[in-house]
Design brief:
Number of helices: 10
Structural class: alpha/beta
Largest sheet: 6 strands, parallel
Bound molecules: nickel (II) ion
Shape: globular
CATH superfamily: Glycoside hydrolase/deacetylase
Strand content: 5-15%
Helix content: 25-40%
CATH architecture: Alpha-Beta Barrel
Order of helices and strands: HHEHEHHEHEHEEHHEHEE
Distance between the termini: 19 Å
Oligomer: single chain
Length: 239
Amino acid sequence: MRRLIPVLVTAVLGLATAPPATADTRHAPSGTTVDCAKVKCIALTFDDGPGRYTAQLLDLLRRHHTKVTFFLVGQRVAKSGKIARRMAREGHQIGDHTFTHPHLTSLTDDQIRDELSRTQDAIHRATGRRPDIMRPPYGDTDDRVGAIATELGLSQILWNGSARDWELRDTKAITRKVLGLAKRDRVILMHDIWPETVAAMPKILTTLEKQGYHVVPVKSLLRGRQLLPGDTYPVGGWN
Ligand code: NI
């Protein structure tokens, strides 16, 4: 898996595709851009949705002027694009979490391609934007998955802190776990399909804010560097 390429090369290669000023920083508190080189940032990321509690989470994030990243399951987006549309409109980053949430490394090349591209299509139909980041379900990836992601214009986003909310299923325990993981520039894995996770978010957000953190979408951690298709971030595994 390729590592991040320095900014100069990336800037040259990325000229044609570089997006304009990103929506994720537009709504930052006090209207300023969050610069993670200067302030303490952390990225909360939510997988497997949209689900029945996602709208509640979006309401809370809006009250806190906070942007996060959602890795969406394509078949859920295909059923109803409304929530995905709202995420995009409110400035959150949206990534591809496959169409049916399989273990990608157990599939054929064509099946992997299908899982990822159908989800890109569904998200594009719902939001008008084609995602350029993906997260492999279960973190299950290899060079073959990486090559197909590259072909589809996707970088892979992993994590370096997990809420383990699917097994804790307890609001206080999830709150404690996430706050215990909090560290500058960390990418935290959570799941908005669980009510306990969404219920933990008010305390998590107010505590992180008190501790001086800026909760940002994952790409903001890159401090202006671009991810290229095939890049993996964060480099160095997960726990
Ligand atoms: Ni997942």
